[in-house]
């Protein structure tokens, strides 16, 4: 079964799930958009007004800015897949709660399994915390990390949310600079040496610790 069909089935399952929070105040489910065969997956926070109206993530001002940066590095929206940690719009665009994020988690996890990207870009602190908990985005933005995802190595690149970049010139500059690193990170992911590099780093650390004993 191809990935698009699996995603369509997952979306249908979510639409029928009456236990999901935020449904009551939302217009519709905002599932995900883009190329299911993409090696690059973006995960944001939650739908805003225009996303709720159109049923597609990142179609407002933040999405337009994101599209500009994709063009800047030679990509288009159709080349990536993009989604959020919650898929119904929180009231007044407030932050999603831990309970809400956890309620959608199994669906997001299945989405990640289906797409099976090599690189995951987290947009904002809520999606970052899914893979890299206990850190501040100001300290780790733009720094890729290799994480274990159900036995597979994934490169995760934490970034600011594009909406935050539109509110601050300083954040916008950092976000743009981080975005421009993506082609090189994708090239590294394509080399298929992610696990080997991780093992080498682990061995090097163990040798250094032995010398300190």
TrEMBL record:
- What molecular functions are annotated in GO for this chain? 4 iron, 4 sulfur cluster binding; metal ion binding; uracil DNA N-glycosylase activity
Where would I find the Uracil-DNA glycosylase-like domain in this sequence? 31-180
Q: Which UniProt keywords apply?
A: 4Fe-4S, DNA damage, DNA repair, Hydrolase, Iron, Iron-sulfur, Metal-binding
Which InterPro entries does the record cross-reference, listed alphabetically?
UDG_Type-4/5, Ura-DNA_glyco_family4, Uracil-DNA_glycosylase-like, Uracil-DNA_glycosylase-like_sf
The top EC class, named as a word, is hydrolase
Q: Which Pfam families match?
A: UDG
The chemistry this enzyme catalyses reads: Hydrolyzes single-stranded DNA or mismatched double-stranded DNA and polynucleotides, releasing free uracil
Enzyme Commission numbers on file:
3.2.2.27
Taxonomically, the superkingdom here is: Bacteria
Which stretch is the leader sequence? none
GO aspect biological process, one term: DNA repair
Q: Per the similarity annotation, which family is this?
A: Belongs to the uracil-DNA glycosylase (UDG) superfamily. Type 4 (UDGa) family.
Listed PANTHER family: TYPE-4 URACIL-DNA GLYCOSYLASE (PTHR33693:SF1), TYPE-5 URACIL-DNA GLYCOSYLASE (PTHR33693)
Q: What is this protein called?
A: Type-4 uracil-DNA glycosylase
Species annotation: Candidatus Woesebacteria bacterium GW2011_GWA1_39_21
């Amino acid at each position: 079964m191809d990935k698009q069909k699996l995603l369509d089935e997952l979306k249908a399952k979510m639409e029928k799930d009456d236990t999901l929070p935020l449904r009551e105040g939302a217009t519709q489910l905002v599932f995900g958009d883009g190329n299911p065969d993409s090696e690059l997956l973006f995960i944001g926070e939650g739908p805003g007004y225009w996303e709720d109206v159109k049923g597609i993530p990142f179609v407002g001002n933040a999405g337009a800015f994101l599209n500009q940066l994709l063009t800047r590095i030679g990509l288009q929206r159709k080349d990536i897949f993009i989604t959020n940690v919650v898929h119904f719009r929180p009231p007044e665009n407030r932050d999603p709660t831990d309970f809400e994020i956890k309620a959608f988690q199994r669906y997001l996890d299945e989405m990640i399994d289906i797409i099976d990207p090599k690189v995951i870009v987290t947009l904002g602190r809520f999606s970052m915390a899914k893979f890299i908990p206990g850190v501040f985005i100001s300290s780790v933005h733009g720094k890729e990390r290799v994480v274990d995802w159900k036995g597979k190595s994934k490169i995760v690149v934490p970034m600011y949310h594009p909406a935050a970049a539109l509110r601050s010139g300083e954040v916008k500059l950092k976000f743009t600079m981080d975005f421009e690193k993506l082609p090189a990170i994708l090239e590294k992911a394509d080399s298929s040496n992610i696990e080997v590099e991780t093992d080498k780093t682990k061995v090097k650390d163990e040798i250094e610790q032995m010398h300190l004993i």
